[in-house]
Each structure stands twice: as C-alpha cells, then as structure tokens.
Fold this sequence. Notes:
Elements lengths: L2 H12 L6 H15 L6 H9 L10 H10 L5 E4 L3 H11 L5 E4 H4 L7 H9 L8 E4 L2 H11 L2 E5 L14 E3 L5 H4 L2
Parallel strand pairs: 1-2, 3-4, 4-5
Amino acid sequence: xxxxxxxxxxxxxxxxxxxxxxxxxxxxxxxxxxxxxxxxxxxxxxxxxxxxxxxxxxxxxxxxxxxxxxxxxxxxxxxxxxxxxxxxxxxxxxxxxxxxxxxxxxxxxxxxxxxxxxxxxxxxxxxxxxxxxxxxxxxxxxxxxxxxxxxxxxxxxxxxxxxxxxxxxxxxxxxxxxxxxx
Length: 182
C-alpha cells in the first residue's frame, strides 16, 4: 500500500485550525507511522519536518519556472507551508519566483479560499488571466474550479481523474506548461 494517499488524508486532518506547518509535518509523520504500526520518536518527526527545505524539487520544476519567467509570466507560489520554510526552500533550490502567499500569511490552509483572496488582493491579479498550477486536486484544483480560475493539474503519477473534477488542463509535469503558455 502506498504511503502517499494515507499521508494526504492524515495531513488534511491536521490542517483544520492553523498551526505552524512544521507542527503539521511532525504530527502527520507521527500519525502515518502509527497507521503503519511503526514506532518513530518525536524528535525524528521534528527532524523530518525541519528537512523540508532540502527536499529535491521535481527535475523539471526549477528550469521550467525560470523559462516561464523569461517569457514574462509572473510566478507566485500559494503554499501551505510557513514563510521561513518556503524562503529556505526557494533559496536552497534556486527557484525563480515573483512572490508567494503562505498559510502563515493567511492563518489557514488550502483548500480554504484565503490564499486566493490574498493573492488577488496583494498582486492585483485578474481572475480571467490567472492559471493556477498544482499537483493537489484536494488543496488546489477543486477550490480554484469553484472560484472560476483556470487551473492545470500536474498529474505526475497518472492518477485517475476524480469524478466531478474537471481541471482546465491535465499535464504530466510543469515542463508541459511551456508548450501551452506561449
């Protein structure tokens, strides 16, 4: 059995009321271990949470973000992590972005609409000229569809498209954006 769907479900349970994302990661790691009847120490779960900035991005992401920027496309991250973790991740991986909105900024976690409300307000973005690109159907594709914002589901693992979910685009990776955004 894959850990990924279990992790996503347990993480979503932790994201009810805002608390620092390091705590979300730590608590979810402990729950996943418990689910699989594996014992881990709390300090190991804390180390896991602290390691987030060193996680390798997908191989196409860094270069694709750079190329999108070179084409004049604004790249703003809407993230469920906190500012410090995101800043470290951006620096560690040399990501080129034009801004970000974090869970810490809005005091909630996606799929709550607060990220998008803040994004449209802070960046004076036009909903009709925005494309939200994401891998999470639950956190991103469903809420942006409800908002009437075009979206691209990055379906890296060829998952079945959930019933009733109709992204504007379904792409295998971020690099594929370069073909549709000319």
